[in-house]
Amino acid sequence: MMKKISILIMGLNCFLCLNASKDIDAVYALIERVTPGYASQYQLELIDEDRGSDIYEIDSDEQKVILRGNNAIALASAFNWYLKYTCNAHLSWFGDQLDLPKKLPRPVKKERRVINGKYRVYMNYCTLSYSMTWWDWKRWEREIDYMAMNGINMPLCTVGLSAVWYNTLLRFGYSDEEARAFLVGPAHAAWQWMQNIENVEEYSLPKSVIQKQSDLGKKIISRQLELGMKPIQQGFSGYVPMNFKEKYPEAGISKKKNWCAYPATAQLDPTDPMFATFGKVFLDEEKKLFGAHGFYAADPFHEGHPPVNTKEYLNSVGKAIHELFQDFDPSSTWVMQAWSIREFIATAVPKEHLLILDLDGSCKKGKVGQTVFWGYPVVTGILHNFGGRINMHGDLSSLASNPYVSLKKKYTNICGSGLFPEGIEQNPVYYELAFEMPHHEGEIDINAWLDDYATRRYGAKSVAAREAMKYLLKGPYRRGTNGTEKSSVVAARPALNVKKSGPNAPLEIRYDPMTLFSAQEKLLEDVENLKNSRPYRFDLVDVQRQIMTNLGQLVHKEAAIAFRAKDKEAFRMHSRRFLELLSDMDRLLRSRSEYNFDKWLSDARKWGDTEPEKNVMERDATSLLTIWGPEKGPVIFDYAWREWSGLVENFYLPRWKMFYDMLEEHLENGTEYSEEGLQQVYKREAFRANDFYDKLADWELSFVKQSGKARNPIIQGDEIALVCELFPKYKKLAGEYYKNENDKNATLVDDNDIFENLGE
Length: 760
What we know:
Distance between the termini: 64 Å
Shape: globular
CATH topology of the largest domain: TIM Barrel
Low-confidence stretches: 743-750
Oligomer: single chain
Mean pLDDT: 94
Strand order of the largest sheet: 6-5-15-14-13-12-11-7
CATH superfamily of the largest domain: Glycosidases
Structural class: alpha/beta
């Protein structure tokens, strides 16, 4: 007996040693990817967790930098903290600052940090469509490393899900063409996985794209597992093709309400026997391709309404979905977004088997009960960005207060934090701090942090850069700037009285726009010292872009005033200035790859094998950022507006020119033009509100269908030279337009004009 026990213990020890070795090997490989040639200067060691929390230490001896952690994520976090706070290095979506000496510096003293929260979740469905749709493995590999280094241990993983659906439908009697005709293009996939839409366009998803997505998804999830992450996979809550009823007439299927002009989708009743049958096949097919890893996302009736809204019915829905997951995997956890959560569905599930993702911090706002989400495990979140829109904003002071820590004291069921942006690759300072806060015990000094950030980001000490950060803190990153991005007049569909770009927040600036001029002056003051920094160059462009789009609001306003006054000369001056501003903005943005529509289109076309397939991908990519869809009667057009090079010159500028040309024709002919009484959608003019908008809609649809739109070269111009040209030009113009003190003050509007939960 003792011999058997000894053998068992030896086997267990070998297993633990093997796993430990895998964690260490994975992080050594990460270090070498991020800083080639430096892995040998580190010694990695595993230590025990701290009362259930991930923990890491940074230390050294005479030979090496020593990084300790209780798992791969903790070790990767230690590596990142060492780079930031010992080496003054910086990794960013917009270029790295990794000017490291041949021999790495030793930390001044041993440092020990506990990472807050059992779960650190990253992404929602929309992130994968608005930002990641066209990524290749190289870009994904970098992002996964970035996640690990920032302590993320639970990413949403839906890449390759089209293959799961394709294979599942084939098993239920669908032909190849029928299955592919159901699937939307990759850019719109997020909303299919959230059950809002199915394909209604005239093209089907190419088989080659399905296969490529599947292959990429396997690589992604494999690397996430290698680094010790717990990927959230797709579950099943009843969404099926609308024509499923034709093949299975006895199945209990109801129609959901139309979502944002898309036809209704079908809901297979979770209480129907077919639900478990279909769901099991779906989960089996997912497991075949990507494995089964214990966490399954499912959001019944997302941005919609159940067919029966009673406690009893909703409770039975919750039980049915829970039982499906349990039958498939008894240790499974159902992951549910709080976005469209229903109490009686959630509370039908045992607490140990449900994890609620509070995407937008509802519990912080006190919206959900005295015990916050009925005492279920909750990940409290930040939803900073919608639609991938790129205007500068974000409450840094709120982040620095470490809301997770205060919420955890108030609600013991909070078990983690999450970053849930609809799009990334914008507002780098906000995300740098957001990723870092789980590594702090409590509140931090935001001013001191910004000083360190400027040095790390630009790779040199600069008093001017530090002062620039302070101006940005007073401006777009002040209190009250979180949440929904405010509208861009550049990307707005033209109107005399422009209300908003997209269906979301109105035009407003919640800070003194002149703070941006002060920030830019400071950044340019030390250009010789900082010019070799790629992140510095990006920030110059981003600040200049925001200066111009803010000013554009007043330039167009004056053009509209002149038109109403029938002042031809003034109208021509202001309208032409506005069009010139757009042209200048496009030239500016073309100096960077990150804000580039041409790159977006080129990357999309790479997913197709044949010319027709490439054209389909380009059409899908174009639609998302313009009309959004569907092509027959869109209502959330411009939801995902982007001030991107290529999109500004070839889409936004022509729209505005068509509008101004029409207005000028009215002035010349002495005829009237009014927007009074026009049909509205989301409190702006409808897609086809009058003759002009009919003409504009036809042009927009033709733009979506046009192939080969990407310009070559994609990147053109020097960032610093362009900013040095444009800053004085628009500073001078600002002196004319910001003539009234009221123009410079932050504008506050009624947030009831904001629409984000579009389907409710």
